[in-house]
Design brief:
There is one protein chain. The protein has 267 residues and is an alpha/beta fold. The protein has one domain: Rossmann fold. Helix content is 50%, strand content 15%. It is built from 9 helices and 9 strands. The strands form 2 sheets. A 7-stranded parallel sheet has the order 3-2-1-4-6-7-9, sandwiched between helices. Strands 5-8 form a two-stranded parallel ribbon. The longest helix is centred in the middle third of the chain and has 29 residues. It is globular and about 55 Å long. The N and C termini lie far apart (56 Å). The model has no long low-confidence stretch (mean pLDDT 94).
């Protein structure tokens, strides 16, 4: 049976790949973005409901969800994909830029969850896929704002999964590595302090040399994830995340073990 999707950040990148994959196999999609998506209607007709939406506008989120529910009669898969990266050392971060980062990457998904959950709960079924990042598990130089937004999203989503399990709603935190999308180079840069230029140069070199994933492959994979009867709470997309997380968690466990004597003395 075809599914009805509600996807934020559908204009490009992974969001567009998710939307195109779902529509290509015959599902229905409420595709949202801050820009007009009428070209999707020209290609897929009534199977897609394009909606202009800025996820930082709470009232607009609730209105868009209500419109999608009324249009399709149900919602099955919610994909909180809208987001962007703010690059800059912690010392450089501008307050307004940081707040904008959190408004989009954290509060946006929160509003979507709050708007869609009553419908999913009444159905007794549904999936919420929270698009986080490998940066939701690791601290990366110049990524303090982005990491903070994704770590916050991960904590919220882990709690959400426990709260809604009894309603038949399942939550998955999707942690992609790097993909060949505009997001790789299209983020926001904070005002630079020259002392951090070496870190910026290293990041630029890494991006230039990295082997990023194929968004179409991610589109195919999310269909399988949405169809899985018992989806995981967390899953990496791509090959980068697992080895990075292995090392990070090994380091954390060793540090906690090394300092356990002092921890115990704090009782």
């Amino acid at each position: 049976m075809s599914k009805v999707w509600f996807v934020t950040g559908s204009s490009r990148g992974l969001g567009r790949a998710f939307v195109e994959a779902a529509l290509a196999r015959g599902d229905k999609v409420a595709a949202t973005a801050r820009t007009d998506l009428k070209e999707l209607s020209a290609k897929y007709g009534d199977a897609v409901l394009p909606l202009v939406l800025d996820v930082t506008d709470k009232s607009s989120v609730f209105a868009a969800v209500e419109q999608a529910q009324a249009h399709f009669g149900r919602l099955d898969v919610i994909v909180n994909n809208a987001g962007y990266g703010l690059s800059g050392a912690v010392e450089e971060l501008d307050e307004s830029q940081l707040r904008d980062q959190l408004e989009t990457n954290f509060f946006g998904p929160l509003w979507v969850v709050q708007a869609t959950l009553p419908y999913l709960r009444d159905q007794g079924d549904g999936r919420i896929i929270q698009v986080s990042s490998v940066a939701g598990l690791l601290g990366l130089p110049l990524g303090g704002a982005y990491c903070a937004s994704k770590w916050a999203l991960e904590g919220l989503s882990e709690v959400l999964a426990q709260e809604v399990a009894g309603f038949g709603v399942k939550v998955t935190i999707l942690e992609p590595g790097g993909y060949a999308t505009e997001g790789v180079t299209g983020g926001v840069q904070s005002a630079g302090i020259p002392l951090y230029d070496n870190l910026r140069a290293a990041l630029t070199a890494y991006v230039a040399a990295a082997d990023f994933g194929d968004p179409d492959a991610a589109g195919r994979a999310i269909l399988e994830l949405a169809d899985t009867p018992n989806p995981p709470l967390r899953i990496f997309f791509g090959t980068q995340g697992y080895p990075m997380a292995q090392q990070a968690y090994a380091d954390r466990l060793k540090t906690w073990a090394d300092w356990q004597d002092l921890s115990v003395r704090a009782m």
